[in-house]
């Protein structure tokens, strides 16, 4: 199973990816998680990425593409992978295709988790993330239900940044829906429903 997850920030890509990983043991490659870890570790990549992330803009392609290529070459990705938050624009999608071809791999599906922008704003404003394990919850979670870690609000989930992230999605990422439709691998699920209903559809769409 080699899959790309598409959808606006807050559509539920990470949640669906976590469920697929738990059930099928594939690698979860979330560029947002990898970049946040680099910022936390204050690595060279983290220092370069931080200002873009804080403002809700995309980190330069060459940084993100190098990160994803390294991750795709690791052992656990050979059993299958779910890319979450990558590609974010056409140039990243083209780079992904050639990186996979060079490794004799290809994508099985690009799965769009489709949610209206008005729903997204509400969801992102209420979203809280675990500082220890990255679990995504809501402001009702006082502690992380998975590891009891501290829940916090990501800087880029604050109202002033959310609209910019949605604009970036519309202008740069949404065109990928047509890109993957053109490649004949686009599948879509309605993401504006309870998590388990969406997951049931995801599995059906992926033939699992
Ligand atoms: P996410 O957790 O996927 O919402 O990503 C959080 C932030 O990380 C984004 O707003 C971007 O600044 C950066 N980011 C994540 N993935 C990418 C990507 N594929 N290309 C460029 N920037 C990215």
CATH architecture: 3-Layer(aba) Sandwich
Instruction: Please give the count of helices.
Output: 9
What's the helical proportion of residues? 40-55%
- Strand tally is 8
Over all CA atoms, what is the radius of gyration?
16 Å
Q: Report the uncertain regions.
A: none
Give me the secondary-structure category: alpha/beta
Specify the CATH class: Alpha Beta
Question: H/E order of the elements?
Answer: EHEHHHEHEHEEEHHEH
Strand content: 15-25%
Bound molecules: adenosine monophosphate
CA-to-CA gap between the ends? 10 Å
Superfamily at the CATH H level?
P-loop containing nucleotide triphosphate hydrolases
What about the largest sheet? 5 strands, parallel
Strand order within the widest sheet? 2-3-1-4-8
Q: What is the overall pLDDT average?
A: 95
Organism: Candidatus Coprovicinus avistercoris
Function: Catalyzes the reversible transfer of the terminal phosphate group between ATP and AMP. Plays an important role in cellular energy homeostasis and in adenine nucleotide metabolism.
Subunit structure: Monomer.
Binding site for AMP: 31, 36, 57-59, 85-88, 92, 154, 165
Give a topology summary.
Blueprint: E1 2-6, H1 13-24, E2 27-30, H2 31-40, H3 44-55, H4 61-72, E3 81-84, H5 90-102, E4 109-114, H6 117-126, E5 127-130, E6 136-138, E7 151-152, H7 159-173, H8 175-182, E8 186-190, H9 195-205
Parallel strand pairs: 1-3, 1-4, 2-3, 4-8
Antiparallel strand pairs: 5-6, 5-7
Helix pairs in contact: 1-9, 2-3, 4-5, 6-7
The structure holds adenosine monophosphate.
Family: Belongs to the adenylate kinase family.
Binding site for ATP: 10-15, 127, 193
Keywords: ATP-binding, Cytoplasm, Kinase, Metal-binding, Nucleotide biosynthesis, Nucleotide-binding, Transferase, Zinc
């Amino acid at each position: 199973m080699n899959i790309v997850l598409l959808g606006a920030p807050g559509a539920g890509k990470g949640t669906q990816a976590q469920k697929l990983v738990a059930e099928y043991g594939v690698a979860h490659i979330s560029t947002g998680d990898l970049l946040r870890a680099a910022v936390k570790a204050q690595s060279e990549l983290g220092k370069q990425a931080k200002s873009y992330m804080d403002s809700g803009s995309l980190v330069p392609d060459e940084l993100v593409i190098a990160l994803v290529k390294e991750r795709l070459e690791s052992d656990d990705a050979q059993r299958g992978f779910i890319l979450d938050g990558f590609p974010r624009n056409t140039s990243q999608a083209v780079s992904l295709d050639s990186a996979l071809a060079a490794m004799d791999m290809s994508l099985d599906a690009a799965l769009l988790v489709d949610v209206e922008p008005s729903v997204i704003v509400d969801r992102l404003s209420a979203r809280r993330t675990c500082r220890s394990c990255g679990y995504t919850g809501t402001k009702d979670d006082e502690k992380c239900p998975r590891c009891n870690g501290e829940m916090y609000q990501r800087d880029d989930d604050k109202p002033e940044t959310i609209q910019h992230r949605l604009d970036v999605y519309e202008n740069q990422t949404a065109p990928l829906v047509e890109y993957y439709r053109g490649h004949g691998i686009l599948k879509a699920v309605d993401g504006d429903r309870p998590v388990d209903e969406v997951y049931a559809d995801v599995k059906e769409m992926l033939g699992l």
